[in-house]
Amino acid sequence: MPELPEVETVVRGLQKSLPGRRITEVRLGKTDFIDDPAALAAALTGARMGGVSRVGKFICCELEANAGDGSQGARQYFLIHLGMTGQLRVHDAAQPAPPHTHCIFVLDDGRELRYADIRRFGRMRIVAESQMKHLRGELGTEPLEIGLEDFRARLGARRAMIKALLLDQHVLRGLGNIYVDESLFRARIHPMRVASKLSREQFAALRRAIRETLAAAIRLRGSSISDYVDSAGNRGEYQSHHRVYQREGKPCTRCRENIRRVIVAGRSSFFCPKCQPAPRRKKARRPARTRKMQEKELSQRAAAD
DNA sequence: AGCTCTTCCTGAAAGC
DNA sequence: TGCTTTCAGGAAGAGC
Hints:
The protein is of the alpha+beta class. Helix content is 30%, strand content 21%.
């Protein structure tokens, strides 16, 4: 699953191949994951690629203004989100395209930028400069750039479970299931803890854990769980360093306790029950009222009126 | 506000 | 063995 480290790795690879290249032809297969396929093909055919960057889990390819008609339109960007199984690779044109290759962008150097996506949870669109600003605005801060005070301010006022917040791209952009679980383990925080109840020290530890986890994963070019490969087709290596993710029933690397799995925010969440103590159970409420009791109350109230 | 459920999609793995 | 069912999950939207 491409999250920040995987997307960063892909972007670094594309940065070496794409800038300066012109797209001479666009071939589209299935297009249900593209906002406006005709507009995308029109914008990319003949376009020269500028810089490639990452915004959260989005890959942003800057397009230099279309030459030829002399139009000086606003700058445009080619945005790609890899979803679950998206792969953006640069191949020699002679190489056969693997199954589920839905887009081929023929480059002017004998190579092709190809997009393959088995489940088609990825997304593609062309946006103008103004929409790009809008995108940045609605997404949260980069987790590698956020300062401690900002981090606490963004999370500390919230009463949601910490894992749900870390997955929310409007809070921090770029984290997904793997790196949230790994970071929470590193910070010794249970995924179901309520954010506003974490201490100052825990926020500091969590921010540090996120930075260390992401940095280590980027260093090893991401985690290849199922389909992920970088722009050259290489797998990442961080998956062998996971300490909790998909390690249910296996011993914790710190304390040997068995790693457990719970569902939080609809996602499998792996944690060590000893290293990451569960939140204190909610205060026991008065025994739940049965339907009969409620009906009795209602009729009594009605009678009193 | 924040939780759960549903939808999109395919292939791997489990179940029978 | 081979078919059918279940599950995984990033993001968005509905409903509570």
